[in-house]
């Protein structure tokens, strides 16, 4: 999509662009990612980025003249029964509506993006060879079509340009088989080859490509536009394969092995936390590290099976620490702290696409967790 002049960008256009990068289909069933509040026809030219939406953040947006608050955590997670300035969510929705401020929340769509929340956390730690820890399933499809040999290259190229044919670190992947297609054009037809009423045999190529389901519409449109036939024969087949481009968590390797204690100290410096809760042997040598932004303790077993020496996430319970495999270091680096870096991704994407936008990180401390006994200078902002 071409860049749009910021004066002409509506909220619906902005959302369409954003969801082309962070597909809503990636979100978990329990979630409410997406547009929370706002008039789709309203013009957007300024964005305030935040992990959480609080009344103070909405007030900051009002004072700064921002059109859109873009958050990680959803403003509306559970259904609202009233708007009476009661809960934080009710107050935020009411204030946002009264001040014509839109709110969009990325959440688990962004969590499951291969280049999203967990990826940037892994990069901040310094990991290399980063890949998705637990890929999504049921997200891939196979598109099959039959094309005259003379147009096979053009149709393949159109499909590749629309996003089909990517497998792992490879793109432009397809399978092609030559054969013969037959047809007889009826009255009113305009056949690519042959004559109306005559049986015709055409040398064709069967083209097969893999695509993620969220690109289904774009790939079909691209195929139909490039295909020379009036009536195109094609099949779309759902696959059970893992989609390595999206999923929970990330895993990679350190450039050089570290003692567990050294890794924990690196995490303390990175997050700004005064303490790191962990289990396992801090003297253990760590080479492979798995991470999950937010609450990812359900991935501890996946991390261990993938060969991780350490697993880092937030919101780990006491009994989860107890049941964790003894051969792996498990560290709780805080829910907020493990997700806050993801705002940098959103900032860079928006700045590149809409360079004239007013764009800012919220200055409000939305992390509700503090550590009693430490100086205010040690608190997380």
Secondary-structure map with pairings?
Blueprint lengths: L10 H11 L12 E4 L8 E5 L4 H10 L3 E4 L16 H11 L3 E4 L2 H4 L5 H9 L2 E10 L2 E9 L3 H10 L13 E10 L14 E14 L3 H11 L7 E5 L3 E18 H12 L5 E3 L5 E11 L4 H6 L4 E5 L3 H6 L5 E4 L2 H5 L2 H12 L4 E4 L20
Parallel strand pairs: 2-3, 2-15, 3-4, 12-13, 13-14
Antiparallel strand pairs: 1-4, 5-10, 6-8, 6-9, 7-8, 10-12, 11-14
Helix pairs in contact: 2-3, 6-7
Key features of this structure:
about 375 residues, alpha/beta, 15 strands, about 30% strand, globular
Tell me briefly what this model is.
The protein has 381 residues and is of the alpha/beta class.
Account of the 3D structure:
There is one protein chain. With about 375 residues, the protein is of the alpha/beta class. It is about 30% helix and about 30% strand. It has helices spanning about 10-20, 55-65, 90-100, 110, 115-125, 150-160, 215-225, 260-270, 300-305, 320-325, 335-340, 340-355; strands at about 35, 45-50, 70, 100-105, 130-135, 140-150, 175-185, 200-210, 235-240, 240-260, 275-280, 285-295, 310-315, 330, 360. The two termini are about 35 Å apart.
Radius of gyration: 25 Å
Span of the ends, CA to CA: 36 Å
The overall pLDDT average reads 94
How many helices does DSSP assign?
12
Topology, number of strands? 15
Q: Helix fraction?
A: 25-40%
Strands side by side in the biggest sheet: 5-10-12-13-14-11
